[in-house]
C-alpha cells in the first residue's frame, strides 16, 4: 500500500497511479453543471444514473445544477468482475419513472467499448422521451468499437483500466475520492 499525493492523501495499492485528482474532478463538475443547467433550464429533466458505477458522479453532478431535476436509476451489467466487456448487457434493475415526453439525461461513469451507451440509446428511445442526452464522466475514445454520440464528457482518457470515484476494481475501491489507473 502507498499513500498518494492529492488533497485527501488516500491509501491505495502500489500498482495504482493517480490519473485525475479529486480537486480536478470537482472543478470539471462545476463546469458541466453550469453547461447542463443552461441547456435544460425550464425543462425539468430526469437524470438516469446507470448503476453501479455512476452513483457518486450523479450525486455530485446534481449538486452542481441550479435547475429542477428528477432522478432515477437503471442497473445494467456487462463486465461482471472482469476488465473487458462481455458484450452481453443485462438489465438488472429496470427504470421506475415514466420517461414518455420527458427530457432525459443518462448519466454514465465511463464509456469504453460504447456498447452500454448503444444499448441504452436503443432501449430508452423506445419509451419516446422528448429528448435523450448522454453525459459521462470519462470516455476512452481509442476503445470505442461502436460509434456513439455523447453530449457531455468530463474527461477523455487513454486506454487504461481506471478505478475510484464510483468505478470498481472487482467490485471494490469505488469509495476512492480520486481516479487512478492500474498498472
Ligand atoms: O462502454 P462499455 O464498454 O459498455 O463500458 C461502460 C460500462 O461499463 C461499466 O459498467 P459495469 O458493467 O462494469 O458495471 P458497474 O457500473 O456496476 O461497475 C460502466 O459503468 C459502464 O456502464
Ligand atoms: N472500473 C472500470 N470499469 C470499466 N468499465 C469499462 N471500462 C472500465 C474501466 O476502465 N474501469
UniProtKB/TrEMBL annotation:
One Pfam short name: Pribosyltran
Cofactor list: Mg(2+)
Family: Belongs to the purine/pyrimidine phosphoribosyltransferase family.
Domain of life: Bacteria
Ranges for domain Phosphoribosyltransferase: 26-169
GO function terms (MF aspect): guanine phosphoribosyltransferase activity; hypoxanthine phosphoribosyltransferase activity; magnesium ion binding; nucleotide binding
Biological process terms in GO annotation: GMP salvage; guanine salvage; hypoxanthine metabolic process; IMP salvage; purine ribonucleoside salvage
Species of provenance: Caldithrix abyssi DSM 13497
Pathway note: Purine metabolism; IMP biosynthesis via salvage pathway; IMP from hypoxanthine: step 1/1
Location relative to the cell: Cytoplasm
Protein name (record): Hypoxanthine phosphoribosyltransferase
Keywords for this protein: Cytoplasm, Glycosyltransferase, Magnesium, Metal-binding, Nucleotide-binding, Purine salvage, Transferase
GO cellular component: cytosol
Annotated EC: 2.4.2.8
Broad EC category: transferase
Catalyzed chemical reaction(s): IMP + diphosphate = hypoxanthine + 5-phospho-alpha-D-ribose 1-diphosphate; GMP + diphosphate = guanine + 5-phospho-alpha-D-ribose 1-diphosphate
Amino acid at each position: 500500500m502507498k499513500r498518494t499525493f492529492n488533497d485527501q492523501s488516500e491509501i491505495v495499492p502500489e500498482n495504482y497511479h493517480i490519473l485525475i485528482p479529486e480537486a480536478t474532478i470537482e472543478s470539471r463538475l462545476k463546469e458541466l453543471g453550469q453547461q447542463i443547467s443552461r441547456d435544460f433550464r425550464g425543462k425539468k429533466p430526469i437524470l438516469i444514473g446507470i448503476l453501479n458505477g455512476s452513483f457518486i458522479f450523479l450525486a455530485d453532478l446534481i449538486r452542481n445544477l441550479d435547475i429542477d431535476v428528477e432522478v432515477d436509476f437503471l442497473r445494467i451489467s456487462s463486465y461482471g468482475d472482469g476488465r473487458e466487456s462481455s458484450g452481453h448487457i443485462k438489465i438488472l434493475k429496470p427504470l421506475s419513472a415514466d420517461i414518455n415526453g420527458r427530457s432525459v439525461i443518462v448519466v454514465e461513469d465511463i464509456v469504453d467499448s460504447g456498447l452500454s451507451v448503444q444499448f441504452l440509446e436503443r432501449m430508452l428511445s423506445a419509451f419516446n422521451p422528448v429528448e435523450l442526452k448522454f453525459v459521462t464522466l470519462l470516455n476512452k475514445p481509442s476503445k470505442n468499437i461502436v460509434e456513439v454520440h455523447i453530449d457531455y464528457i468530463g474527461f477523455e482518457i487513454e486506454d487504461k483500466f481506471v478505478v475510484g470515484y464510483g468505478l470498481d476494481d472487482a467490485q471494490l475501491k469505488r469509495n476512492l475520492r480520486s481516479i487512478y489507473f492500474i498498472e
